[in-house]
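Thread: quick sanity check before group meeting

JM: Hey all, I'm pulling together slides for Thursday and realized we never actually wrote out the predicted structure for the chain we discussed last week. Dropping the sequence here so it's in one place. If anyone has concerns about the input, flag it before I start.
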Amino acid sequence: MTSTTSAQPRYHTAQRYTDRTGKAAYIAGKYAPILVGRVLDVGCDQRQLRSHLPAAAGYHGVDMNPAADTVLNLEEQNLPFDDGAFDTVICADVLEHLERLHGVFDELCRVSKSRVIISLPNPVRNLMLAIAQGSQGNLKYYGLPVDKPADRHKWFFGAEEAAHFLKARGDRNGFDVEQIDVEETYCPPWLGTDGADRLNSHNCRGGTTWCVLKRR
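JM (edit): ok, ran it. Output follows.
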């Protein structure tokens, strides 16, 4: 297992992102060595990743969006593919939106022949950032909106718990963590009466966790 605190990890990129299009470029650049063969993109939105992959890659996107190659509701349906049907399976910033997170995670592993790439946000960090903004802060995907939102996060966790979940659940499915790293590590300090920063931990400061699971 590697991290951003050790030597440069195998999978890396200077690309950063602020939207779905940028995220697709980030994924394609960072994980280029394993985005070959058959690639399944679970939660593909409008298939933005496809244009960044080699022409020879067998890309297939799954989403509720009509633009997907396979349109389905992950809360109600399993992935309609055989075991090990894809060389690499990607699921970026999707699982936290699903009540059926655990079952879908297992499905990602089932249909992967070699690797699964998963990203999870850090809701704890996002909460701290919102609190730091005071009355201007917005608890994105949480909070108490006047109208029922079309989408929201179903789970609340920190970076350490995300890493533990990915390792332990991956192990149950026959996968080891090949690499795990985070995007961004800043969180405003929260000083106690002794002057110590109560938020000076990876659990609070670690941003989005990116993980590559490799089948044993």
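AS: nice. The helical segments are 20-30, 101-110, 123-132, 159-172, 202-205. Residues 193 and 199 are 14 Å apart (CA to CA).
JM: adding both to the slides.
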